[in-house]
Every structure is written in structure tokens, then in C-alpha cells.
Amino acid sequence: MAERRPPGPFRPQAWRSPLRGPWLTSVLGAVLLVGMPILIVTGLLSYVAYGPQFGQALPPDVGWLRPPTFPWPTRPVWLYRLNQGVHVVLGLVLIPVVLAKLWSVIPRLFAWPPVRSPAQALERASLALLVGSILFEIVTGVLNVQYYYAFPFSFYTAHYYGAWVFIGAFVAHVTIKLPAMLRGLRSRSLRAELRTPTSEPEPPDPDGLVDPDGLVAPDPRPATMSRRAVLGLVGGGSLLVAAVTVPQHVDGPLRSVALLLPRGLRYGEGPNDFQVNKTAEAAGITPARTGAGWRLTLLGGPRPVELDRAALLALPQHDETLPIACVEGWSTTQTWRGVRLRDLAALAGVPRPASAFVASVQETGPFRSAVLARNQVLDPKSLLAVGVNGAELSLDHGFPARVIVPALPGVHNTKWVGLIEFRAV
Ligand SMILES: Nc1nc2c(c(=O)[nH]1)N[C@H]1C(S)=C(S)[C@@H](COP(=O)(O)O)O[C@H]1N2
Ligand SMILES: [Mo]
Q1: How far is the CA of 347 from the centre of ligand 1 (A)?
Q2: In order of start, what are the domains of the chain with their CATH numbers?
Q3: Is the C or the N end of the chain the one with fewer CB within 10 Å?
């Protein structure tokens, strides 16, 4: 009986790019082997920085998938800025590499027959999880950074569990493929490739020693570009993404190059002209709640303490230059003026609190309260800020008072604060 010919793209002869081969796939794989663990670690560290011990990491309850938790430090003050900057910038920068790697192995998607053995079926299922989860992480991550909540589920929940699917599939993939990647890398010289203007196809490998997956086209077209050009294209794409995202972390005129900043580039007048995450209007903050009737209530001591704005301004004021770094991948450093949180704790009658619950006068919406840990309350740089860069806080930045704590995720720097409860636990 004549063997039935597989259809269309399932024929190995259908894939004719002379550029595909184990060397190219291995080079792209090596880049991802360095980059992906950094993405994974910074992602999990961001979860820890949110304070899972207070039930305020997102998603709050992840059972045994909770990473080892430790008190998130307040030094260096740029710790969260670095962590989250690396996570978001690297995540975006690796997109061209991921796409190129998928392109380089696409004939494998059309293996024929689709299932040869149970072991091979298992391998294909694990690859489906690997590819599916990384694309899911990229899509949810990019949409979140662009504040586009197109999906019916919580970004945090989806991105967190998607990450664990990816971690599992990635570890399995690396374990299985590491020897093949090393062989592939050794099969050609990177230096020689980078000097070659148009590349011949990687040599056919009938024994499958270097190319067990059959990535080399059996019937290649003549080369029109080189492997050097492929690497240049991918690297250039990554550099371009970096060039328009890194400026999200730079204060000054360079920030206008941050093309991916979704909320424009003007945020207020003079000293208050820096990134606003949620405006007072969007948060439903009215002048009535922040005007003359505003009070700061301090709880946890023998009796509640109430301060009006004049009383708050009469307390010792301190200046600290500290960054705000949002989980969504922008940050800005400003010079804040305000009252030390630890002075407020002492004033409340709880000089060494275990934690502090901070609540905004904001009545609806997420992120209007946060719990700070002891080290965060007691750090001398932690302020309830009333001013910034020599001016009064603008309403959008949290007038009359907002929290600013070193190395704290932006989200917990509560704006429009009305109440702080210093707790013994
Ligand atoms: N009350 C309140 N505080 C808040 C928020 C909020 O929505 N409501 N957003 C938080 C988030 S997510 C960030 S990143 C910072 C941003 O501060 P900024 O808008 O002054 O730059 O404020 C935080 N404080
Ligand atoms: Mo944020």
C-alpha cells in the first residue's frame, strides 16, 4: 500500500526557508534561557513586595503556589523600581525573540503523523502548554501595561497562574532540550555567522545528531538573507522596544520618547507635573472630602487622635527624594515633604507598631487602602507627604496627604489619606 501523502503544511517540503536550523533556534533559545528566569524571578518578587502576609498580594490566596515570603526591605529605595522596571521592560524586549523562536520551529507544529507514540503525544502537549502560556503572559502583560482590560477575568489572577503554567513547562522544556541547544550552538561559529552576508542553509543532518527535530528544510529555497540579518532584525526590534519603554523610568525631556506610556505626558502644573496613575476625578475624590472638613484620624492607641491640616503641618516636616514605581512599569523620582510615619505612630501612642492600615477618603474603586509592615512604618524616610518639589501636593497626587515609602510598590502609596490605624499584629 502506498504511503498516504500528508496534506499541505504537514509535508516537510512545504517549509523552505534556508535560514531555519538547529543553530539559529539554539541561539534564540540561549537568549530566552537567560531572559526568562529573570522575568520569572522579578515577577515572583513583585508578588512578595505586595505583602502576601497581609492578604494584599494579587491574587491574595494562591495556596501552595505562594512563593517564599520575606519582609520586603525599604533599601535600596529604588529596589521595587529596579525589579518592576526589569520585569516590564524585559518582558516587552523579549517579545521579538519569542516570536522569532516560534517562527524558527514552526515546521514542528505540523509534524506528521501528529501523534506517533504516547511519549511524543506527551511532549507535544507540554509544548502546547509552553507556547500557550508564554503567549498568554505576553498578551495579558501588554494589555495591562496599556490599561486595556479586554478580558473578563482579573489580570493579576490570570497573569499569576499563567506564570506557573509557564514555569512548569519551561523547566521541563529546558531539561529536555538543553543538550540539543548546546550541540546546536557548537555546530556553527557565531563569529563566522556574523561575518557572512548571505547564508547557505545549515547542512542537512541525515543522522539527526545535530538536528533531531528536522528543522533544516529538506528542499530549501535559495538564500535571500543571512542568519546575521535575522539576528539583526530580532535584535533591532528588541532595541526599538527598549528605546520606547526605558524612558518610562527617566525623568526629564527624554520621557517624551516613552511612546508606550498610555496616559499621555502632561500630568499637572510645575512641581506636580509627573505621572498620575489615577486622577482625583477618576477616583471620585471631590473637594468636599479633601477641603476644610478633612481630618486625619490616627487609631490604635489608647484613644483616637484627630488632626486637621493645620495640625499636620505643625508637626516636624522632612524632605525625602524617593521614587514611585508602579507595577505597570513606569517610575518617577520626586522630592517629597511630609511627616514621618513613625512620628505619627508615636503621636497615636503606638511607637512600635507591627503594621499600619492606611485608608483613603476615596469611597469606591480598588487600591484605596493598604497595610504597611513594621519596617516600612518605622523607616525614617517613610512619610505622610503633604508636598512635593517645594509645592503643595496637587489633588491628582493625593492632596491633602499621601503615603510615600521607600521601595514600596506604587500601589501601596495611598493617596488622599484619611485614616491610619497602627496595629499590634
Ligand atoms: N487612594 C488611592 N491611592 C492610590 C491609588 C488609587 O487608585 N487610589 N493608586 C495607586 C497606584 S496604582 C499608584 S502607581 C500610585 C501612583 O501615584 P501618583 O498617581 O501620584 O503618581 O498611587 C497609588 N495610590
Ligand atoms: Mo500602580
Answers
A1: 26
A2: 2-247 (no CATH), 266-423 (3.90.420.10)
A3: N
